[in-house]
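Page 37, continued from 36.
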């Protein structure tokens, strides 16, 4: 069993298992946000990015059975020959709160992954509302206003985002700013 994974190996798994466009965009957005946060926090940018890229690897395969989400990703990775507990635990714990799932976040890294993947939904929903449908020029204060409205992008878990900012030792505004800037870097790829 391999105890590490290269970006090339992670990208090959991503390309093999995730086919739905919006899931691919979401995973890439989570990847770049995780990289940006790792850089800001002087953590391992490659590992954090890979975790963001692979966190939803199983979604095209599990369909509506969200109780398998996370566990199936770990199975896919183990079947591919990997044994990376820190990666596995982050993927398993990011699904905390889903009915039928008993995993809990414990580390800063796990909290940050859950927040990073949720902030993509809030930013994307805001971009979709804009007439030009582009991320360029979006400010954190605009996202903060929508953050306070629970009816806007209602499926986005605001607590996970707040918890992530806290565990990243930054205020919410800074967390959102870093996320917007990271997502902007791949706007050509995602069409935003």
């Amino acid at each position: 069993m391999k105890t590490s994974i290269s970006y090339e190996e992670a990208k090959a798994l991503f390309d093999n298992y995730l086919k739905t466009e919006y899931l691919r965009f979401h995973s890439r957005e989570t990847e770049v946000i995780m990289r940006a946060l790792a850089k800001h926090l002087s953590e391992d940018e490659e590992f954090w990015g890979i975790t963001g890229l692979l966190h939803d690897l199983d979604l095209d395969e599990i369909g509506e059975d969200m109780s398998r989400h996370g566990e199936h990703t770990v199975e896919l990775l183990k079947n591919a020959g990997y044994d990376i507990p820190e990666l596995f635990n982050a993927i398993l714990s990011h699904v905390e709160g889903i009915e039928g799932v008993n995993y809990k976040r414990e580390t800063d890294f796990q909290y940050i992954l859950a927040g990073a993947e949720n902030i993509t939904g809030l930013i994307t929903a805001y971009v979709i509302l804009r007439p030009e449908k582009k991320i360029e020029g979006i400010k954190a204060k605009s996202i903060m206003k929508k953050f306070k409205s629970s009816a806007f992008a209602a499926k986005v878990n605001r607590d996970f985002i707040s918890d992530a900012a806290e565990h990243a030792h930054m205020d919410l505004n800074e967390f959102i700013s870093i996320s917007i800037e990271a997502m902007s870097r791949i706007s050509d790829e995602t069409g935003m």
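The chain has one domain: 7-190. Flag for discussion at group meeting. The two ends are 39 Å apart (CA to CA).
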